[in-house]
Structure formats: C-alpha cells, structure tokens
Amino acid sequence: MKNILHITSSARGELSYSKGLSSAIVEKISQENAISQIRVRDLVKDTPPHADEVSIHEFYKHPELYDEQSKKLLSYANTIVDEVREADIIVIGTPMFNLGLSTPLKAWLDQLIRAGVTYVFDEQWNRVGQFKDKKVYLAIASGGRSINGAPDYISAYLKDVFRSYTGITDVETYRIEGTMENGFTADYEGILKDF
Fold first, then answer.
1. Gap between the Cα atoms of 176 and 134, Å rounded
2. Which of 46, 127, 141, 193 is deepest in the core (most CB within 10 A)?
3. What is the mean pLDDT of residues 178-185?
4. How buried is residue 139: exposed, middle or buried, by Cβ count under 10 Å (0-12/13-18/19+)?
5. Can you give the chain as a three-state secondary structure string?
6. Which of 119-128, 148-157, 170-179 shows the lowest mean pLDDT across its residues?
7. Predicted pLDDT at 99
C-alpha cells in the first residue's frame, strides 16, 4: 500500500491546468497501485509562511537545539516534513511564472528543506539526503510553448533541490503547454499516454 502526497500551487483553483494534470497523474497512479492514502495540500488555500527576521534563525539551528519557540515557529515546516516523510509518491502541480515555479511552491520548499532534518552532512561535509526511495512526479503548466532547445528551468531546479537536499533522485516531469492559445483544450490522457 502506497501513500501519495498531492501538492497543488496554482491560484487558478479548479481552472488550473497544472492541477488538472497533477490530478490526472494521481488518478493514473491510483489505477496501477494499491493506495492507502492520498493527502492533498493546496498551497494557495493553505499558503506556506515566508521566513522572516525571527523565524529564519530556526531554519539554521541544529534540531537538537530546538526549544519551545522553535516548535512554534517551525510548526508548519514540521507538518510538511512529516507529510513528505510519510509519502511514497509525491505529485506536484505548478504553473510556470516568468520561467519559474509558483511562489507558493517556492515558499513550501523553503519551509521543507532543513539541515539536520531533510539532509545531514557526512564526515567530508557532503550533503546526504534523508528521504531516499521516494518518487516525485512534476506536472508543469505554461501558457506558451517551449522552443526547441529552450531550458526547462522549473524541472531542472526542482530535480536539483530534491536530489541535493532530500536525497530524492527519481523525479519525472510531465508538461501541458500552450494553455493561453485560443480554443485550447487540455488532453491529459494524451500527455500521460506513456505513463
């Protein structure tokens, strides 16, 4: 039995193409696997807090030094760390904004990644991720279409973050493009035909 964590991050709500594609991925996974739980985290409805002058120091504290204030300031961060830890499969939907990911998703990553929690340092000061053996699917929506040879900043960035700071290396990307075109119709089944 597998646990799925489905993260959505588009302000378009039910009209979101990234949410539509990520939901189609969750449906495909559910058809092919025995699923015990699907946890959905909507980062627009439950927006991650941004680090501020007080909380930023907690993110760089060693977990052994956490106190009551740490627990309070890291409450959201600890919740999402637990959600990722418990998930076997993570499905992330994000729209492309100016070649980058959505701001709620960036804030979520900033809350998730912590030394001593999602990664540790070995004796040579190399980062060692603590969440290996998980699968991540990225569902990326963009209004335009990529041009041959154009870099994919979002998936490259997310793959690097997951590899470097969590140890997750199995990351697969699916894209829905051209959503701003007149008469655009989403074909999630076509995008996922080789899933």
1. 24
2. 141
3. 91
4. buried
5. CEEEEEEECCCCHHHCHHHHHHHHHHHHHHHHCCEEEEEEEECCCCCCCCCCCCCHHHHCCCHHHCCHHHHHHCHHHHHHHHHHHHCCEEEEEEECECCECCHHHHHHHHHHCCECCCEEECCCCCEEECCCCCEEEEEEEECCCCCCCCCCHHHHHHHHHHHHHHCCCEEEEEEEECCCCCCCCCCHHHHCCCC
6. 148-157
7. 84
The answer to whether residue 180 scores a pLDDT higher than 70 is yes
Cα–Cα distances in angstroms (integers) from residue 129 to residues 8, 108, 177, in the given order:
24, 18, 32
Q: Which residues of 72-105 are buried (b: 16+ CB within 10 A; e: fewer)?
A: ebbebbbebbebbeebbbbbbbbbbbeeebbbbb
Residue type, 123: E
